[in-house]
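quick one
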Amino acid sequence: MRLGTVMSFVFAAAGIAVLVKIVLPPSDTEPLRILSSGQCLECHAGVAAEWQTSHHKFAYENPEVRKLSNNFANQECIACHAPRPVLSFEPGERVLARQSERGLGVDCLACHAHPEGGVGTSNIHAKLDAPCRPRLVERMSSVEHCAACHNQHKTVEQWRGAPDNLKGNNCLHCHMPETWREGGRKGRNHSFRASHDLPSLQSAVTMEAAWDSDGAWVSLSNHGAGHNFPTDERSRAADLQVRWMDAQGEWSLWERVHRFRDPYRDETDLTNTQLPAGETQRFELLPGADIQQGEVRLLYRTNPYLEDALASELFRMELAR
Ligand code: HEC
Ligand code: HEC
Ligand code: HEC
Ligand code: HEC
Ligand code: HEC
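structure w/ heme C:
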């Protein structure tokens, strides 16, 4: 064979190789053997930094949880605070505790590890040949995903019953807002801000108050929580309080006007007074005849017995006759 003919075969073969390279998806990255969430932190530094500040990361170390579970002597409490991957369970099935790396709480694997290997994502543009081998799982961005742990006290049912214009598409809409990742890729914030964050709490409700021809009143509207306010954890309490200034210019002590709360199971004398999404409640205030001035405020307590000074003050307004 002449050299030219040989060369043309070589070029043709190379051409086919280039074509194959374009037509077939590149698979030049070795699949990662997924063993620990520690691996994810190395490649997804942005997500990891957000998750480190979240209560998901904190779930097994949280001193409040340790106190109430008798340092996890109550093993029932481990299930959602150090769970196995939720994608290994059917929607609605109870998640179970894992044995390893419990200190990482609700970790990357708990939400992403796929029972057949790789990681779950609902992003249809995901790079399926990335080392962690993303797999399309629609449930990842549906309320069913969060419901695996968050429907114990009916937060997901409350969301289902909320007015459509206040629900967002799903839980992610408010709790995982869109953000940008390196390389211009769209991502979702993993810090899960909610009741331990003042701006989130303030975005849930609006307080109004006045002293007009109807007398003195205060009202609260839930237009920003997408579920009851407060929700989920039964220990949360939001209190409307009032105080009055007497003729000598002395303030009275703060008095409770109303408490929004879902009581513990053993508090059988109390009923659920949470404020559902889309609802407004208005309360008449009854100042004495000689009172000219007062103040109302909304306090949020992560624990119903927490003293006023340790609660978050969401709003305060003045009242004047
Ligand atoms: C060796 C680096 C590496 C490791 C380790 C790794 N990933 Fe990835 N991952 C990537 C790359 C690269 C992408 C593709 C990113 C892109 O589209 O630009 C990706 C994509 C993803 C996606 C899909 C993102 C999308 O497009 O919506 C998810 C979810 C994900 N990784 C989760 C994880 C989790 C959970 C772990 C730990 C088990 C992990 N990854 C470990 C490199 C890695
Ligand atoms: C595997 C169980 C599990 C799944 C799945 C899960 N969570 Fe959580 N989540 C928890 C636990 C446990 C806590 C409480 C941790 C703590 O404070 O000790 C928590 C806390 C939270 C908080 C409260 C943060 C705060 O400041 O108190 C928010 C908001 C939240 N999760 C949103 C979500 C959303 C949205 C989803 C779905 C994308 C989701 N979670 C999926 C278990 C889970
Ligand atoms: C079915 C899943 C599940 C189980 C089982 C579970 N938890 Fe939780 N826990 C959660 C979720 C979800 C949250 C976050 C809800 C919220 O912030 O309102 C949470 C939050 C908490 C908090 C509030 C943490 C904080 O910083 O405010 C405490 C305390 C707690 N759990 C204690 C316990 C104890 C004690 C047990 C066992 C008796 C237990 N949990 C069992 C899912 C669970
Ligand atoms: C329209 C926005 C919005 C949507 C949608 C939404 N939330 Fe919230 N969520 C909030 C706000 C604001 C707060 C803080 C006020 C409060 O605690 O009610 C909050 C609080 C929470 C908390 C913290 C409660 C606590 O006691 O610490 C959890 C858990 C939670 N949401 C879970 C969910 C889940 C699960 C879904 C989906 C079914 C969801 N949220 C949908 C806005 C939203
Ligand atoms: C409480 C559940 C939960 C935990 C914990 C969690 N994720 Fe996610 N993650 C999600 C959801 C939900 C999405 C968005 C839905 C989708 O597209 O799959 C998402 C999206 C992502 C994405 C693509 C979007 C982006 O922001 O880049 C990556 C990558 C990712 N997660 C990696 C991780 C890593 C790494 C960890 C641990 C540090 C982690 N996730 C922990 C639920 C979780």
